[in-house]
UniProtKB/TrEMBL annotation:
Lineage: Bacteria, Pseudomonadati, Bacteroidota, Cytophagia, Cytophagales
Protein's organism: Adhaeribacter radiodurans
UniProt keywords, alphabetically: Hydrolase, Membrane, Metalloprotease, Protease, Transmembrane, Transmembrane helix
Transmembrane segments: 21-38, 58-76, 83-103, 133-152
Protein name: CPBP family intramembrane metalloprotease
Presence of the UniProt keyword Ligase in the record: no
One Pfam family it belongs to: Rce1-like
Amino acid sequence: MKKEEVDASNKFQQYIKMDSWQQLLLNLTVFSLIPAFCEEVFFRGTMQPLWYKCLPKPWLAVFITAFLFSLLHFQFQGFLPRFLAGVVFGGIFYLSGSLWLSISSHILYNSSVVLLNYANQHSQVNIISLGKILLNPLLLIVAALGMAILFFQMYQGRYKKYYYNK
C-alpha cells in the first residue's frame, strides 16, 4: 500500500508542476476550489447534518464525518492530518452554521498547498525552512489559542445558526 501512495504522490507532483502563472491559476482551480467546494457540500453540507439527526451528540457527527472524509481520500499515510482538518472544517460548520465558512477554510487550506508548491518550484521559499518556522512551538501555541478563541466566539452564538434540533 505504501508503494501505491508514493506513486500517487509522484503523479500529483507531476500534475502540479507549474511553469507559469496561468498553470498556477489552473492548479488553484483544479486542486483547490473545485475539490474544496465539492467535498464540503458532500461531507459538511449533506453527510454531517444527516449524522446530527441520528446521533445524540452533534460533535460525534463532526468526528464521524471527519473520519469518513479522511478515509475516502484513500491516502492512509496522511490519515491523521486529514482527519484533524476534517474535524476543523466540521467544527467550523457546526459552530457557525455556515457552509460557506467551511468551504472558504477548505479552499484556503488547499490553496496553501498549491501556492507553497509553486513557490518551492520557483525557489522563492524553501519548504524545509518554512516547515521549521511553522512548527515552532510558540507559533503553534499562539495559533491554537487563536483558534480556541475563534471557536469559543462561534460557540457563544455570535455566528451560530441552529442546525441541531432534537
